[in-house]
Amino acid sequence: MPKILVVDDQPVNVQLLKKKLEREGMTVTTAESGQDALDLVHRDSPDLILLDIMMPDMDGFEVCQLLQADPATRAIPVIFVTARGTKESKLEGLATGAVDYITKPVDLDEMLARVQTQLRVLAINREKLDLEQRLAESRHAATIGSVSQGIAHNLNNLLAVVLGYIDLIRLQAAKPELVKSNAANVENAIKRIADVIKQLNLLAIETRPPTIEVPLDKLLAGGVARFQADNHIDVAPLTENPLGGLIVHVQVEAFERILSALLLNAWESHGDATPDQRSVELRSRRTGDAKAIEILIEDRGRGIAPGIRAHMFEPFVSTKQHVGVGMGLTIARHSLRNMGGDLALSDREGGGTTATITYPLS
User: Fold this and answer.
1) Nearest-angstrom CA–CA distance, 193 and 197
2) For residue 333, how many C-alpha atoms fall within 13 Å in the half-sphere facing its CB?
3) Helix%, strand%, coil% for the chain, nearest 5
4) How far apart are CA 51 and CA 189, in angstroms?
5) pLDDT of 247-287, one tens digit each?
6) Residue range 300-313, pLDDT digits in tens
7) Residues near 188 by Cβ (< 8 Å), separated by ≥ 6?
8) Which N-terminal residues, if any, form the signal peptide (predicted)?
9) Is the CB of residue 32 less than 8 Å from the CB of residue 63?
């Protein structure tokens, strides 16, 4: 039975939320001040907290910050409930660590839907932690754990997104435009789930795929075209190919996907920059022993984050802020090695990153 803590200095607000949640079979405890809330949290850890912002002595922002600062309470989801409905207030609330924001006067059905969504996310995460613990006890935890945890993290987050939008569709059944918009979001999340599964299938392929003879200039052009088409990007990277139509033996579909993924990484490394502010270059050259070629994808973006430098080719390692990502580099290097090549990432002199594909000529 979920345990919910409701914190508000107005008793009538507390009772309204308490009765609604208890009718749904939840156990509800209440507090009328920030300090009382902190004491209750440490004494009887709740599954979720509904927290008012505007309270005397200690406001909701400060309470949330204190909860986030304590490892013992950091994982408890907090939903702000407040009369402050401005965009600035919402951003401030979410920045302190809250998972959601409800404005007063509270629509009790909407509040219940949001609470139930967060409880489902919490249950999914707890199942993930249980899975991680059992995997850690296995002999192959070092190998299996990385992939399995990444799968659980991505798919669980995507499922939570689907559940959240389904809840909104139910609440907005009388508003066709909103239903259509949220249905599109559900479809997009499902496509991301399918893409994760597709990438896992690619990762499982260990045999070397058949190759054909292809001119290098045609191969590079195909990778650029795929990058632009798949990601709806009009700007093409600056391409310098002094090797011209040099013939390479390659599996075209796989190689174009690799180029597209690396070009997208370079493009997205510039953050929120406008298209004309992004710099992505694609160059070719022979290696020193002339037995292979190198294809370099360079950007002037934010560079390789120190926290992922040692793990950037592991599955589901990513600095992107949306769910359903993290397999691109893993798949790219795996596919290249199956074709006899390799992939390396390094810091670009002057800032940014250089991805170097090394591919044999025989």
Assistant:
1) 6
2) 12
3) 50, 20, 30
4) 29
5) 999 989 889 988 998 998 899 888 888 888 899 999 999 99
6) 988 877 665 555 66
7) none
8) none
9) no
- Burial class of 313 by CB neighbour count within 10 A (0 to 12, 13 to 18, 19+): middle
Is-contact 61 34, C-beta < 8 A? no
Separation of alpha carbons 240 and 238, rounded Å = 7
* Ramachandran area for residue 126 (φ above 0: left; ψ -120 to 50: alpha; else beta): alpha
Residues with Cβ within 8 Å of 11's Cβ and at least 6 positions away in sequence, in order, are 32
Tell me which residue has tokens 């195909």: 222
This prediction has a pTM of 0.47
- What's the CA gap between 240 and 85, in Å, rounded? 52
Domain ranges across the chain: 3-106, 117-204, 212-360
Phi, psi (5° rounding) for residue 30?
-130, 155
CA angle 30–36–42, rounded 5-degree value: 90
Domain 212-360 has CATH 3.30.565.10: yes
Superfamily (CATH) of domain 3-106: Response regulator (3.40.50.2300)
Q: What type of residue sits at position 36?
A: D
Helix (H) or strand (E) holding 111: helix 108-136
60-69 helix and 34-43 helix, angle to the nearest 10 degrees: 30
Structure tokens at 175: 């508003």
Residue 305 CB neighbour total at 10 angstroms: 11
Q: Is 27 within 8 Å of 1 (Cβ atoms)? A: yes
Q: Do 212-360 and 3-106 have the same topology in CATH?
A: no
What are the structure tokens assigned to 20, written together?
A: 């609604």
Distance CA 264, CA 31 (A): 49
Q: Cα(315)–Cα(197) distance, rounded to whole angstroms?
A: 13
Across 177-190, average pLDDT = 84
Phi, psi (degrees; rounded to nearest 5) at 289: -90, 0
